[in-house]
Amino acid sequence: MAETRIETPTAPSRSRLRRTWESDFIWSFRHSPVAVVSFAVVLLMMLGALFAPLIAPHDPFNPATLNLMNGFTPPGQANQFTGEFFVLGTDDQGRDVFSTILFGMRISLFVGLSAVFLAMLIGVTVGLMAGYLGGWTETIIMRVADVQLTFPAILVAMLIFGIAKGITPPEHRDAMAIWVLILAIGLSDWVQFARVVRGATLVEKNKEYVQAAKLIGRTPFSIMLRHILPNVLNPVLVIATISLALAIIAEATLSFLGVGAPPTKPSLGTLIRIGQEFMFSGEWWILFFPAATLLALALSINLLGDWLRDALNPRLR
Fold it and tell me: Which residue among 159, 197, 209, 279 is buried most deeply as judged by most CB within 10 Å?
């Protein structure tokens, strides 16, 4: 009588997970204390911003929950009138500074991530076209990029923000302010992506796999999207990481100048602008904690981007 062999589905191979864990990229990350700490800080801040409604002790932008008697409570102390305790103190309106930072980071991170995505989308698209098509297409795109590079990015963002806000109906300006801010920062930062992608495309388009794709009848759009794009993504990811920190700082700068996020949806830049009004009156914490949060966030993202640049550079392996 023949034996019946029952085969059980095999579990995922541990060797694959082990190879991933011991890969050059993960090994470089595990052996870089700066990268590990930076990643932990960024992850912690992003989770704090994402779950701000659940973590924040108070809703700082709900007038029904505010108590003016809590105003100017120093950090780590209980208010002498209400007895409420605030870890990072309160501002002039009695809003918990810790809660305002969590909600402010939501706006700053949302604007930064969205602006970088927009800049990356525009820059990668026009960079691929300039590098692969060449001719007048490349000339026009790169001359526009050169002209934009002659102006500081923050001035370009302010110009775009002012024009976009000017053509927005007055009744919709506050509701559209965040989207206008994303558009302004995104359009002021696409040049870096375009220049890097164009240079990488000029190198890739002369390689054998691109020539083979042409011989089998692939369209230029298909070659750029399916063949060249995957091979130029490494520098794009590095630039995107560093640009995220710059976009967050740009948003904070515009909001600090009063042309960014509206008062109803304050970001870290808005909180810093509010705090600087009380810097010389003794309420230092209203300015210090939002500014320290912005500094820690931007510095951690920059350090993470520096490590990512080195980790993805084949010459340093």
Answer: 197
